[in-house]
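Feature request, filed as a ticket because there's no other form

It would be nice if the structure record came with a short human-readable summary line next to the C-alpha cells. Right now we just get the raw output. Example of a typical job, pasted below so the devs can see what we mean:
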Amino acid sequence: MSGTVNTAVEMANLALAHLKEAPIRDFDFSSVASRWFRNHYAAHRDAYLAMHDWDFAIELVNLPAETEKPPFRWAYQYKLPADTLRIPQQSVGGSPGGGIIPFEVVGQRIMSDHPPPFPLRHVHRVVREAEFAPLFVNGFALFLAAGCAHSITGKNSRAEALRQAAREAFDQAGTSDALQGTPLPMIDLDIIANR
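Raw output as currently delivered:
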C-alpha cells in the first residue's frame, strides 16, 4: 500500500493547506513555515510514527545476543537497531498465538531471558514519505498543522481545532490499521485473574 505523498515537502504542504497557508518549495530559511519544518519535521514524524504500530512501520528482525551479559536479573542482552522508535509487546516467534516474551529496555539494549536470537518486532523510523499509508498521511498532516499553527499563523484557536482534528484522524487511522492482520494476544495479568 503506497501513500499519497512522495517527499517531506509534499507532506509539509498538506499541513500548510490545513492552515490555508502558501506552499513551500524546500525546508530552507525563505519563510517562517519553511524554517519551522526545517527545525521540527523529523521530530514530529518520529513522534507520530511511535504513537502506534503502523503496519508500514513495523519491522521484524532477529537480534543476536551480545557477548557481554547483563549485570543482573536477565540472562541476555541485545543491541537495538538504530532506527527503533518503539518496541511493542513481543511474542514467541512473533506469532499472534505465541507466548509473551518478558523483556526490559535499558538504554539502547533489550534485556531478556529469551535465548538468542531475539525475535524483535518493532516500530522503526520510516524516512521515505512514499511508504506512508494514506490514513497515516491524513493524520500526520493534521498533527503537523497543529504543531506549527501557532508559530505560523499566531492563532491559538486554530491550533486547538487542528489538535482535535488530529486526535480524531489518529483514532480513525489507528483503528483501521489495527484491523489488518491477526492481532497479538492480550496480556493476562495475574492481578486481574486473581480478582
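Something like this underneath would help us a lot:
The longest helix spans residues 156-178.
The two ends are 44 Å apart (CA to CA).
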